[in-house]
Amino acid sequence: MNRRNFIKATLATLAMAALPKISKTQNVKGKKMKILVLTGSPRKNGNSNTLADNFIKGAKESGHQVERFNAAFAEVHPCIGCNKCGMNGPCIFKDDFEFVRQNIVDADVVVFATPMYYFGVSAQLKNVVDRFYAINGQIHRPKKAVLLMTYANTSASQAEPIKSHYQTLIDYLGWQDAGQIIASGVWPVGAVNQTQYPKQAYELGKNIG
After folding, report:
1. Does the domain spanning 32-206 belong to CATH 3.40.630.10?
2. Where are the domains of the chain?
3. pLDDT digit string (tens) for 59-81?
4. End-to-end distance of the chain based on CA atoms, in angstroms?
5. Are the C-beta atoms of 178 and 144 separated by less than 8 Å?
6. In angstroms, what is the C-alpha Rg of the chain?
7. What stretch of H or E contains 44?
């Protein structure tokens, strides 16, 4: 290699080394992602389901692949703590959680959509989260997470238990919060439609990348 080519090659190497590194938790701008939406409302037209609908609409319009699991209308047995799965193996219960297992491992984003029931997530969604135990070793990898939550009261402090649970969960799993829609003051079916929350959920889905 002559001197001129050597200098060019050296400068090119230094330039590449100076480029910012993209961390594993970041998505390249414009990347089409796999998104799993987990809903917990037993009301088909419930307010949290409406937020999920709008988030999904926005995400699909941006070209993302979205799978949805409606926990309240699925058969998911509660975890019984038998440890037969060893935290990273097959569960003794063969039920609809298999859909979650098949879609969550490779998902780039996991969305939790739930109403507040007695200051916690719905029992149906909690069943699904508890069953994460059987895939614990497979889902400890960088992902983004979203919380869509509705509740009847308007006190911000009453939303804290669910927000804290969500943050603790994703911190443990090594996931990154990508946004939260906390919709207060919505109780009857359809009440959320009279607010800006559906639009916010749509925009969050649209811009999730």
Report:
1. no
2. 32-206
3. 999 999 999 999 999 999 999 99
4. 44
5. yes
6. 21
7. none
